[in-house]
């Protein structure tokens, strides 16, 4: 498997020679997704959920069938437990505003970790500030994981919300969500899982994990930009007040007030991104056609190749586990004497796209004792040719800066 | 358009062996400049005499090759110059980064001219201007204090 059989599905690789190693930021889109969006625009477009005529009903059907596809993809019990958002960030803010601000008070605690993306940190900081609840952070063990002792220490009878990512966008590590959920539920806390980096790469079964809320972004799993998902257990979503108010989310309105629509519409104010949702449905079916076992095999194999290659360069340091199979295709690294932004710019000169910076995880960077890192991240369309080119060019980075390689 | 051409001898020399990277003993001005997107962080110090001549300058801190080299080159250009001339060079540099400078302006900027192509790479512009921006801020603060 030197060249990926999937590359041909992605028009961007026909139009750009870029070696794309930044899928953790956003994934590329296969023709199937692009076509679905086009189909919506060319055949199904009208304002969904409103009209009483054929096209609008078709648009509604396309939109609602996407909701069902998402529900079955993550094994939700009911499709009304699927709320469409713009992205993971919006899902987390919805939870902070609607759940956090309304159900927490001074005596309560919110538990999160130092390795969160800012999107799963700032909303909770806001809730803590406004409600007086205490925000506590789980710290990491040597290998970047969260130990059971740490969890048992910080999870208390006062913990109301545990908000954790499943896969780290910097370290690529996976948290044992199932175990965490069991412990949290024993204390009466609800668990919010940030699945932005996990859902595109592994089967996430919300019922098996028994999570209360899960958020993710479509664009990291090959769906269009601007569509995301919040899953929530019905009994929790039902008691939460709306986040945004306006059209499409009401039952009836008078000058004195309003009564709100049933789930899921209560949380989808305004005209929705139906074409994006329809594209997400196509992305799910693309993923399911290939299967997570295959995706894992591709990512792990290439990740191992990156580890092998980089380990031959004594001046390169990989963050996180030494085991490439524990990285979910995410490799954050530093090069002695070279700032990560220079790494990215020099690789860009060779047509290789990697990310550099703090990856929206500044507290984690501080924790790791680095200012920033470069990050190569993989997806199913990457292949050995990509990795070989990357490794070849990484070898030259120090020389470009006048250092010995 | 890539930035690779910028990474050449001049930039590398100023990044690896920055002559002006040092702390001044009795600076007239000290100001920190930060680039929050990539964590670049420099502290610029200037010693300015009564005639407004920049007698000495230095910087400390950490950052990418572009921000470090740019700050070092800037100090080469402005040490020994009057404040007004330093600000004039800063404005020419900013113009160059925006792709608005004339050939003559770029000539005047001497070694700093190697950074002109950075205008094509918005994400790195902040790195290149960090030192120059901090310089402008120092004198802006001075003016506000009404020296
Ligand atoms: C772990 C994690 N959480 C949340 C997000 C936020 O995703 P989005 O920007 O799509 O809302 C990201 C994306 O960078 C992420 O990696």
Structure in words:
The complex is a heterodimer of chains A (405) and B (147). Chain A has 405 residues and is of the alpha/beta class. Chain A has 2 domains: 7-21 and 291-400, Aspartate Aminotransferase, domain 1 (Alpha-Beta Complex); 33-288, Aspartate Aminotransferase, domain 2, CATH 3.40.640.10. Chain A has helices at 12-15, 31-44, 54-73, 88-103, 122-131, 148-154, 177-186, 206-209, 234-239, 274-290, 292-311, 340-349, 362-368, 384-400; strands at residues 19-20, 82-85, 109-113, 134-138, 159-165, 190-194, 213-217, 228-232, 250-254, 257-260, 316-318, 330-335, 352-353, 355-357, 373-377. In chain A, β3, α5 (122-131) and β4 (134-138) form a beta-alpha-beta unit. In chain A, α2 packs antiparallel against α10, α3 (54-73) crosses α10 and α4 (88-103) packs parallel to α5. Chain A is globular. The two termini of chain A are 30 Å apart. Chain B is of the alpha+beta class. Chain B has a single domain (3-145), classed as Sufe protein. Chain: A (Alpha-Beta Complex). Chain B is built from 5 helices and 3 strands. The longest helix of chain B has 24 residues, at 122-145. The termini of chain B are far apart. The relative contact order of chain B is 0.19. The A-B interface holds A 338-342, 345-346, 348-350, 356-358, 365, 371-372, 400-403 and B 2-5, 7, 9, 12-13, 15-16, 37-40, 62-66, 121, 123-124, 127. Bound molecules: pyridoxal-5'-phosphate.
Give a summary of the structure in a few sentences.
By secondary structure, chain A is of the alpha/beta class. Chain A contains 14 helices and 15 strands.
Strand content of chain B: 15-25%
Helix/strand-derived category of chain A reads: alpha/beta
Cα shape of chain B = globular
Mean pLDDT across every amino acid position of chain B: 91
Individual helix count of chain A: 14
Q: How do the SSEs of chain B run, as a string of H and E?
A: HEEEHHHH
Fold blueprint:
The complex is a heterodimer of chains A (405) and B (147).
Chain A: H1 12-15, E1 19-20, H2 31-44, H3 54-73, E2 82-85, H4 88-103, E3 109-113, H5 122-131, E4 134-138, H6 148-154, E5 159-165, H7 177-186, E6 190-194, H8 206-209, E7 213-217, E8 228-232, H9 234-239, E9 250-254, E10 257-260, H10 274-290, H11 292-311, E11 316-318, E12 330-335, H12 340-349, E13 352-353, E14 355-357, H13 362-368, E15 373-377, H14 384-400
Parallel strand pairs in A: 1-13, 3-4, 3-5, 5-6, 6-7
Antiparallel strand pairs in A: 2-8, 7-8, 9-10, 11-12, 12-15, 14-15
Chain B: H1 9-16, E1 29-35, E2 40-48, E3 54-62, H2 65-78, H3 83-97, H4 103-108, H5 122-145
Antiparallel strand pairs in B: 1-2, 2-3
Helix pairs in contact in B: 1-2, 2-5, 3-5
The complex binds pyridoxal-5'-phosphate (PLP).
């Amino acid at each position: 498997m030197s060249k990926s059989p999937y590359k041909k599905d992605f028009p961007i690789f026909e139009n750009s020679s870029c070696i794309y190693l930044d899928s953790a930021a956003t994934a590329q889109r296969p023709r199937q997704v692009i076509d679905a969006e086009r189909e919506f625009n060319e055949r199904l477009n009208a304002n969904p959920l409103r009209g009483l005529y054929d096209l609008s009903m078709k648009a509604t059907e396309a939109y609602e069938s996407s909701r069902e596809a998402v529900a079955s993809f993550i094994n939700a019990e009911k499709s009304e437990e699927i709320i469409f958002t713009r992205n993971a960030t919006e899902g987390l803010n919805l939870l902070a505003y609607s759940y956090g601000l309304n159900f927490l008070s001074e005596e309560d605690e919110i538990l999160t970790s130092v390795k969160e993306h800012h999107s799963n940190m700032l909303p909770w900081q806001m809730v803590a500030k406004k409600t007086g609840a205490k925000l506590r952070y789980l710290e990491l063990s040597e290998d970047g994981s969260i130990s059971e002792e740490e969890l048992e220490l910080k999870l208390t009878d006062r913990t109301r919300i545990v908000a954790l990512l499943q896969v780290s966008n910097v370290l690529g590590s996976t948290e044992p969500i199932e175990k965490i959920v069991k412990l949290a539920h024993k204390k009466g806390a609800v668990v919010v899982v940030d699945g932005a980096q996990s859902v595109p790469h592994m089967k996430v079964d919300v019922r098996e994990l028994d999570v209360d809320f899960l958020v993710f972004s479509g664009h990291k799993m090959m769906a269009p930009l601007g569509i995301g998902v919040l899953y929530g257990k019905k009994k929790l979503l039902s008691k939460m007040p709306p986040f945004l108010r306006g059209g499409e989310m009401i039952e009836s309105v008078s000058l004195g007030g309003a009564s709100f629509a049933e789930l899921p519409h209560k949380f989808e104010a305004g005209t929705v991104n139906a074409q994006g949702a329809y594209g997400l449905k196509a992305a799910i079916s693309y993923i399911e056609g290939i299967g997570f076992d295959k995706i894992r095999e591709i990512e792990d194999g290439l990740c191992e190749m990156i580890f092998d290659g980089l380990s031959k360069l004594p001046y390169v340091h990989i963050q996180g586990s030494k085991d490439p199979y524990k990285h979910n295709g995410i490799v954050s690294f530093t090069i002695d004497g070279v700032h990560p932004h220079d790494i990215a710019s020099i690789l860009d000169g060779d047509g290789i796209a990697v990310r550099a910076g703090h990856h929206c995880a500044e507290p984690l960077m501080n924790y790791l004792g680095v200012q920033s890192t470069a990050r190569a991240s993989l997806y199913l369309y990457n292949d050995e040719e990509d990795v070989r080119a990357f490794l070849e060019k990484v070898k030259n980075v120090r020389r470009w800066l006048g250092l010995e390689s | 358009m890539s930035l690779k051409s910028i990474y050449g001898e001049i930039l590398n020399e100023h990044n690896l062996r920055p002559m002006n990277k040092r702390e001044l003993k009795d600076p007239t001005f000290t100001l920190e400049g930060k680039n929050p997107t990539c964590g670049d962080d420099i502290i610029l110090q200037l010693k300015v005499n009564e005639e407004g001549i920049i007698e000495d300058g230095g910087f400390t801190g950490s950052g990418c090759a572009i921000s470090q080299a740019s700050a070092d080159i800037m100090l080469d250009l402005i040490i020994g110059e009057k404040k007004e001339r330093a600000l004039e060079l800063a404005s020419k540099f900013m113009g160059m980064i925006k792709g608005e400078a004339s050939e003559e302006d770029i000539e005047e900027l001497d070694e700093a001219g190697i950074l002109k192509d950075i205008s094509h790479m918005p994400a790195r512009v902040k790195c290149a201007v960090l030192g120059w921006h901090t310089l402008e801020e120092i004198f802006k603060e001075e003016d506000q204090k009404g020296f």
